[in-house]
Structures are given as structure tokens and as C-alpha cells.
Here is the input.
Amino acid sequence: MKSLIDQHAAHEAFRFENLMDRFANAKGYPAQTLLIPQPVDLSKKQMGSIETIKNQLLTYGFEWDIFGEDAILVRSVPIILGEPQQTEIIRLFIDYFLMDDSELKRKQTAQIAMMSCKGAVKGNQKMSENEIHVLLEDLVTLNNPFTCPHGRPIILRLKQYELEKLFKRVI
Here is the structure.
């Protein structure tokens, strides 16, 4: 029996579980101060709530100033899995802290899955032996090491016969 691992799906699943855990357990992130603060438009609900969740956002590495009636000027962003995030991610965090219905939670989970996917190693990207070992070590720590957040399989097992059949060695 041979096992094949989709490196992108495995890395995506690890990133997804890590981000979901950080959101659920209120673990903060280190922050990156921006050289040039960036404006971000917010909805009325988000603007009306931003001061009430200020401490939570600060914990996650966001610093900002009010910038008019429907925008903020973001001065720092969190560094998530080693990467400074785009300023617009603050909307995701605001909505997360204001979340109270299941539809919003589903949307948040989908956004976190998309973030995980975009930042994951690509399927055709060459990896060093060390990177492969780290990925495999990360994979065994997952609650679900079998599928990525989008439902694609991470690991496929092929019997020797199936593998030989793919190479037209047997009929």
C-alpha cells in the first residue's frame, strides 16, 4: 500500500486549524506597524462597534484611528503564520467579535479557509526534505488530517495493484 499526500491540502489544513484555534482561544498575534497607515472602509455596524471591541482588536495586533464617519486608518496589522496581513482583514476580525448568528459564523469559517488556502504551499512548489518533514509533523497534529477545509482529500492510499494499473503494468 502506497500513500500520496497533497502538500497544498496538508499545509492548508494546518494553517486553517491554527487560525481557527487562535480565533476561538483568543490568542494574540505579533503585530507589524505599517510605514504608511492605510484607510479601510467599514459598515455602519462595524463603525458603531469598533470602540467596544477595541481591546480585543489590540490583542490581535491592530492599531487604528477613526478616519471620518465610515472609515478607520489602520496603523498596524497582525502577523499570522509569519506573514503580515492585509489591512482589510480587520473587517473579518470585527465581524468575528460581533458574531452571533450561524450564517455569519459560516461566512467567517469560509474566509479563514480562503486565507489558509491562499497562504499555503502550492501543489507544484518544490519543497526541501526539511520542509516535507515539518509538513508531515504538522499533519499528524491536526484534528482532521484527512481533508482540507474545502473537503479535498489530503492523503490517498493506493494498493500496489492500483498503482501498477495506473502505469499500465497490469490489466
